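In response to reviewer comment 3 from the previous cycle, which asked for concrete evidence that the modeling workflow produces usable outputs, we include below a single protein chain processed end to end. The sequence was submitted unchanged, and the resulting structure tokens are shown without manual editing.
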Amino acid sequence: MLVVSGLLLAAPAAAQGEAAAAPEETLSAAAPSASPEDASALPGMAPAPRETKEVKAEPPSVISAEWQFLTSRAGSVDEDVLEMLLEGLGDWVATNPENSGAAEAQYLKAALRAKLGDPKGAMTDLLRHFYEYPGASSAELAQKLFQETVEKKGDKKLKPALLELGASSETGDTPARLAMMLQRVSAQAGQFLYAPLLREYRDFFRRYPGFAGGDMLNLALADLHRANGEYLAARLAYEKTIELYPASPLIARTKVSLAATLADNLKDYDGAIAAYQDIAAAFPGTEEAWTAYSRLPALTERRDKFALAVEIHEKIIALYPDREEAYASFKAEARVLREELKNPAAAIAVLGRLADKYKGERAIEALFLAAEIARKDLKDMAAEVPLYDRIVAEYPADPQAPRALFSAGEAYEKAKSYEKARDYYSAVAGKYSDDPLAKKAQKRMDGLLAK
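The workflow returned the following structure tokens.
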């Protein structure tokens, strides 16, 4: 029996039985030996001649001998020794995962980690014990150590989740159970157990390179990296998932996560634009495509790709006409055309289309803005006034109608078309006599009588 941190661990029964049941593996009593008690074996002493009978003996099983070697020294108080033993145990379990002593070796790994002050590593080793070896004889000891470690060293907010994770699942074969463990722990305690979890992922991929759920696990690993702020590692993991599993049903989500990592975390805006464009083209009509379109306008403007921004807005308007974002795209496209591409005429045309689609206040606002662009940017009264006329024609009862008439009158007055100006002012004063602009229009009209 072995004592580790106050817990008892017996050497694997199979390993013991194997040694006892295989007499050919034990050395004959007549076999030559050299020990400190044998003076002839000491340095500088020639061995005394003796007659021996040649015996052909097989060495003990290397697997069981190594296990006995590791366990016989696990009670050491020398931390350097324990560190080396821990490494050896890890190699032993990795090499012999199906051995009847592997569960106890996995438990011993956890116990040594706890003894060496690595509670997170201990918890992760124990979680693997529960999922890989359900029903093992060491399960009770493992559960006791797990609960003690969680209570003493676990994050207070995570204690319920950690204890729940400790309830192993016996569903499926070993790789399925381990994959389930990795996903569950990553999702519920991934930041807390990040470093030891990475070790478990690496071990799993080495052990099961052809695992059918590899896409799912690679994606989980990428998400784990990103949640822990390891953005370059996350990017590489997302890219690996995409390249290794191009037909995966998770590929769209993976590409969206990659694009978001590039845009939000690595600030690789050009890379993000390319990634989102790929998503929009590859998955039309999906929620992922919409996510791509919703992110692209801001990114393209950030990189001064204004023509592309206009193109994206046009696609949003065409593909998602009933979404609220289509209205925002009309406005944003007009702004980009006017301010960035210096194309006010095109901006006016977009605002006209907005007024065709959205009635009421939104249409009136767009038409007033279009009139402003015609006045300030184009200095084209012939383009400006018809926009006011359209407001009055389509919304004669709207409170903005008298403002439109008054603005048209001002435009003609400025152009010294006084008769036209008087007509518009007269319409304000006559049709909208209760409006505050009526008195002002009357004064303007009176002032024009002499002109």
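Residues 1-48 have pLDDT under 50 and may be disordered. We consider this sufficient to address the reviewer's concern, and the full set will be provided in the supplementary archive.
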